[in-house]
Amino acid sequence: MAAARTTNPMLTWTTFAPLAALVALALTWGRDLNTVLVVVVALLLAGSVLASVHHAEVVAHRVGEPFGSLVLAVAVTVIEVALILTLMISGGKDSASLARDTVFAAVMITCNGIVGLSLFVGARRYGLVSFNAEGAGAALATVTMLAALTMVVPTFTTSAPGPVFSGAQLVFAAVASLTLYAMFVSTQTVRHRDFFLPVSDEGELLEDDHAKPPTNREAWTSLGLLLVSLVAVVGLAKVESPAIESGVAAAGLPPSFVGVVIALLVLLPETLAAVRAAGRNRLQISLNLGLGSAMASIGLTIPAITIATIWIDQPLELGLGPTQMVLLALTVVTAVLTVVPGRATRLQGGVHLVLMAAFVFLAIAP
C-alpha cells in the first residue's frame, strides 16, 4: 500500500512569498525602478498581503479570539508607524501633515471600508448578521474619544498657531492615547473577553473554529512569517511610493492622496482577514479587526510620533479641516446606529461603503 503523502507546511507559497518579498525589498530599497521592476514589486506586494492573512488566521486560531485580531491589528500598526516616521524624516517640512492624513485615512478605511464591506458580505450571505453590541460599542467609544482628542481638538487650541498642539498638549494627548488603548486591551483580553467573541443570531457565544488548532511550533512559525510579511508589505509599499506619486501627479490628484493609497495597501491584510471572517458568519471578529485597527492606529501612532519629535525638528499638524471633521462626525453617528442593535443587514454595510466612497472621492477632489 502506498504511503500517504503529506505536505510540509514550510514548503508552501505562504512561506516563500514573504521571504521573496523581503529579498526584493533589500534589493530595491532606495533605488529607482523601471516599469518591469515596478510590476514585479507590485506582484510580490500582493503575495505578501495574501500570505499575511493566512499566517494571521493561523495565529488567531491558535490563541483564540480576541487575541488573534489583536495580534494583526498591533503588528500592522507598529509597522505603519515606522513607515510614517520614515516618510516624515525623508519628506522634511512638506510632510508636516503626513501623520494626520495617514491616521485619518486609516480611521476612515477601517471604520467604513473594513466594517462596511464585512457587514455587506456577511449580510448578503446570511441575510442578517449578529455581533456583540457591548464589545463593538466599547471599541467604537474608544475610537471616537481617541480621534476627537488627537485630530479634532488641535484645530481649536490656541496655545500654538495653526492646527497643532503645543509641546505640553502633545505629551498629554500621547499619554491619554496610550492609557485608553491599554485600558481597552485589558477589557478585551482579560476582564470582559466574552464581549468580543462571535455570537449567534440568538446571542449565544460561538466557538472560534471547529478545526483542530495548529501546534505551538506552527503558530510560532506563522507569527514569525506574519511579521516578515507585514515588513514586506509596508517596505514594498514604500518602494512603490515613487511610482504611486508619479501616477498621482500625472492624474492631477492632490499630493495628500498618496497617503490614502499607501494606507489602503497597508490595511489590505486586515481587510481580507475581516471579509473572510464575515464570510464564515463571524462578524464580531471583523469588527474586532476594523475598530481595533482604528484604535491601534491612533493609540500607538500619536505616542510614537510624540517621542520622535524629540529628534525630528519640524511642525506636526494634527488638526483636521472642516470637510474631514464632517466625515469623521458622519462616521461616528453612522457607526453608533449600526452597533447599538447588535444586528445588521446589507443596508448598514452599504451606508458605510458609501461613506467610504465619499471619503475617497473628496480626497481626490477636495
Kindly list the characteristics that best describe this protein.
A middle domain of Talin 1, membrane, sodium:proton antiporter activity, transmembrane helix, transmembrane, disordered N terminus, potassium:proton antiporter activity
Count of individual helical segments: 12
Give the overall pLDDT as a whole number: 82
Second rung of CATH, namely the architecture:
Up-down Bundle
Number of discrete domains: 1
Helical fraction: over 70%
| Biggest β-sheet strands, sense, barrel | 2 strands, antiparallel
Description:
The chain has a single domain, classed as A middle domain of Talin 1 (Up-down Bundle), CATH 1.20.1420.30. It has 366 residues and is mainly α. It contains 12 helices and 2 strands. α2 (35-63) packs antiparallel against α3 (67-91). It has a two-stranded antiparallel sheet. The chain has helices at residues 13-28, 35-63, 67-91, 98-126, 133-156, 167-191, 216-250, 257-266, 268-279, 283-308, 322-339, 346-364, and strands at 129-130, 343-344. The relative contact order is 0.21. 73% of the residues lie in helices and 1% in strands.
Describe how the helices and strands are arranged.
Elements: H1 13-28, H2 35-63, H3 67-91, H4 98-126, E1 129-130, H5 133-156, H6 167-191, H7 216-250, H8 257-266, H9 268-279, H10 283-308, H11 322-339, E2 343-344, H12 346-364
Antiparallel strand pairs: 1-2
Helix pairs in contact: 1-2, 1-7, 2-3, 2-7, 2-9, 3-7, 3-10, 4-8, 4-9, 4-10, 4-11, 4-12, 5-6, 5-10, 5-11, 6-10, 7-8, 9-10, 11-12
GO cellular component, one term: plasma membrane
GO molecular function: potassium:proton antiporter activity; sodium:proton antiporter activity
Domain Sodium/calcium exchanger membrane region: 35-189, 222-364
